[in-house]
Design goal:
With 593 residues, this protein is an all-alpha fold. The protein has 2 domains: 1-26 and 46-367 and 379-406, Sodium/glucose cotransporter (Up-down Bundle), CATH 1.20.1730.10; 512-592. The protein has 25 helices and 2 strands. It has a two-stranded antiparallel ribbon.
């Protein structure tokens, strides 16, 4: 890259990021002076801001580079992590979110404390903190640094080593992103996320369009036909046992992994907890599900286009997307692309820092250290803690250079240490009245030991490799741990049944189109899997098989019937149920779950 082009790219990147930072500042000035403003954006977020924040919180440079690399290497089976999240989004919007908002909770550990006790709150905070500080935050920074390093060849540009380049980029990205997260609070993060989300959608759609045009030698339709006519198996999303995501895992452990992420993971649900009312929260969460359906288009299809344009020999495969961007994106848009890429990194990093600070301040400092602390003190402590863990992550992140191959798969495996026990105790806690605190503690300790043994320990200690996919292990342990809690509840039940205290700080009237929207979202997921399957675009003997259209017509018909019932019956019953639970008249009453 010529120095003139590089200077223009950097200046235009700084301009776009500065503009977003300025707009975020104007929108949030004076909103982070108390705990509600700092942690939950003053409980004033609307649906579009929640959707934008959730989308950018979820998307990262790791996905942008990694998912395209996986599509380049194999096929679309990895889209399961993204597309099937819509099922969990529906459960979160219709069931879990009313529980969280109805109890006016700020953190998930706070919710668990109300259900089980302070001991379980501390256990879950420790699980979250270890996951965030040792893996999730460092991997977010490292993947962002790696992406920029590959795109702009930083070692050659500055005449420094690869290792020094990673350290430099990690610190630059971390410090820049941390300022907004630590000093702006949740609303500043949500506002900037929404603006970056618009940019990501623009760039995300532009890259495959330019790729199709290049593949079709100037004709976008010819480019689309080309990837269907040549190597159509790469368009298959139905994973075999040999793929990294076998199709069967969608119906086992992936259900619980996604439900944990979208329904209980603090740094994700904190966006929805800042909703101005239940209706806006449901809009934001459900809209996110539709955005997730676009992920294959701009996070996987470009990888397939890159395969067809540049051949199968690219090493490493993670260069597939950067190569496409570097060669096809106009030079004057590289600065905008860099700003959006950094925005995706900042969003995940910001969300993690803000959520870790929230949990420490609300669940540890406020409860154990200084119960009498006022809002000003809590916000100050949160900023100090956020700064501390940010600096720790700056030192841990570059160490991932020394990790073995398959780093990203290892990270997904590592989340298994805390996702399943948390979703287990949340669901059991919601659907039971007599399961005691000791049951939750036993399950957390049991899971950490059992999961390690099943995934790594048996082979490392005894030389025996368990030939079960780690996503299936998620489901096996979930069932076992639910059984453990039920047995303990039977032997040693609570003396008094748990009661859910309604204490909603916002209006709890559901969005009138929530169930209808959920029906459409569910149907689109099924249709997408049919579309990218051996009877769809991966057919191989034509564009689609003879079964494609009858199956699609059947799905549309079932969807139309479900929509009719959702409008005429289901929505009213659902609204009446929530109204009885959370109306202002009964807000102070106790409701047994």
């Amino acid at each position: 890259m010529e120095h003139t082009n590089l200077l223009f790219t950097l200046l235009s990147c700084i301009f776009f990021m500065g503009l977003i930072a300025w707009i975020s500042y104007l929108k949030t000035k004076g909103h982070a002076s108390d705990t509600k403003g700092y942690f939950l954006a003053g409980r004033g977020l609307t649906g579009i801001f929640i959707a934008g924040a959730l989308l950018l919180t979820n998307l990262s440079a790791e996905q942008l580079i990694g998912l395209n690399g996986q599509a380049y290497r194999s096929n679309l089976t990895n889209m399961a992590w993204e597309v099937t999240a819509a099922f969990s989004v529906i459960i979160m919007a219709l069931y879990l979110l009313p529980k969280y908002l109805g109890g006016a909770f700020t953190t998930l550990p706070e919710f668990l404390s109300s259900r089980y006790g302070e001991g379980v709150r501390r256990y879950t905070v420790v699980l979250f903190m270890l996951g965030y500080i040792l893996v999730t935050i460092p991997s977010t920074l490292y993947s962002g640094a790696l992406s920029i390093l590959k795109l702009f060849d930083v070692p050659e540009l500055f005449g420094i080593s690869y290792e020094h380049s990673v350290w430099l980029l990690v610190w630059i990205i971390g410090i820049s992103g941390g300022v907004l997260a630590i000093f702006g609070g949740a609303k500043a993060v949500a506002t900037s996320d929404t603006l970056y989300g618009i940019g990501l959608l623009i760039v995300g759609l532009l890259v495959p369009v330019l790729g199709f045009i290049a593949l079709g030698k100037g004709d976008i339709v010819s480019g689309m036909k080309y990837i269907v006519e040549h190597n159509p198996e790469k368009l298959n999303a139905i994973g075999s046992a040999k793929d990294s995501v076998p199709f069967g895992t969608i119906f086992t452990g992936m259900i619980f992994a996604n439900l944990f992420y979208w329904g209980t993971n603090q740094y994700v649900i904190q966006r929805a907890l800042g909703a101005k009312n239940l209706a806006e929260g449901q809009k934001g969460v459900l809209f996110t599900g539709f955005f997730k359906l676009l992920i294959p288009l701009f996070m996987m299809i470009p990888g397939i286009i890159s395969f067809h344009l540049y051949g199968p020999g690219m090493d490493p495969v993670d260069l597939a997307y950067p190569a496409l961007v570097a060669k096809l994106l106009p030079k004057y848009l590289l600065g905008f692309f860099l700003a959006v890429l950094l925005g995706a990194v900042f969003s995940s990093f910001n969300a993690l820092i803000n959520s870790a600070s929230t949990m420490f301040t609300i669940d540890i400092y406020k409860q154990q250290i200084n119960p009498n602390a006022d809002d000003k003190r809590l916000v100050k402590v949160s900023k100090i803690f956020g700064t501390a863990i940010a600096f720790v992550s700056f030192f841990v992140s570059p160490l991932l250079m020394n990790a073995p191959e398959g780093l990203w798969d290892l990270i997904r495996r590592f989340t298994g240490f805390f996702n399943i026990p948390i979703i287990t105790i949340v669901l059991v806690g919601i659907f039971s009245r007599y399961i005691p605190e000791i049951a939750a503690k036993v399950v957390i300790v049991f899971h950490v030991i059992a999961y390690y043994m099943l995934v790594w320990g048996l082979e490392q200690i005894f030389g025996y490799k368990l030939d079960i996919h780690f996503i299936h292990i998620y489901a096996i342990l979930f069932v076992v741990e639910v059984a453990i809690m039920m047995v303990i509840g039977k032997i040693r039940p609570r003396k008094e049944p748990y009661v859910y205290k309604v204490n909603s700080g916002v209006e709890m009237i559901p969005w009138k189109y929530s169930i209808a929207t959920a029906v459409v979202l569910f149907s689109l997921v099924v249709m997408m899997y049919v579309f990218f399957s051996p009877i769809g675009l991966a057919y191989g003997k034509g564009y689609v098989s003879s079964l494609f259209w009858p199956v699609m017509i059947a799905i549309v018909t079932i969807t139309a019937i479900a929509l009719y019932f959702s409008v005429t019956r289901w929505n009213k019953k659902y609204a009446d149920s929530l109204r009885k639970q959370h109306s202002k008249i009964v807000r102070d009453e106790k409701m047994v779950i």
